[in-house]
Specification:
The chain is of the alpha+beta class. 51% of the residues lie in helices and 14% in strands. The strands form two sheets. Strands 1-5-4 form a three-stranded antiparallel sheet. The protein has a three-stranded antiparallel sheet with strand order 3-2-6.
Amino acid sequence: MIYIADRLHGVSKTKLLKLLYIMEEQMVKKNHVPFLALPYEIWRLGPVQKDLYAELSDKPFLFKDYIEPYYIDNNKYFRALKPFEDDEFSDCELAVMDEVMVKYGTMNARQLIDVLHQPDTLWYKGAVENNVLASFHNETCNSTEIKIDFRELLFGEKRSDYEESLSVRQTADALKAKFNV
């Protein structure tokens, strides 16, 4: 989030969430490994990471030392409180982050939503398969708990590589949480 907010000198919640999703998807497509390994759900305005959405909807708590909200004409934006440090990211992660920012960073939130609603996207396919697309279009439903399955982007050995990497990442995260590391 610091990386995005710092480079865009402020970013809306929706745009921030969409760029993070695109980074996750691009990392899976390009390198067959998860980026942040966070679960995304199919919501009316596109893929959403529910916990980040909640964190950004109010004043940040978990990320209060890293980003802060500010308002322009009643619209909420976020700015970085610290400079981005790349020491926790691999070269391939940094490359994907840079590529996403070059390709999508100048788009506004509505344009990013439109990109993620295209018929060839995981969001669209999941919305159709789970019969929620019509409910989204007529705005009778805003969110679901339907998870986006990034494995659908990959086949064969690439899918196996992703599944193994995701399992290792989830195990490491669980151990960190258990031992407060």
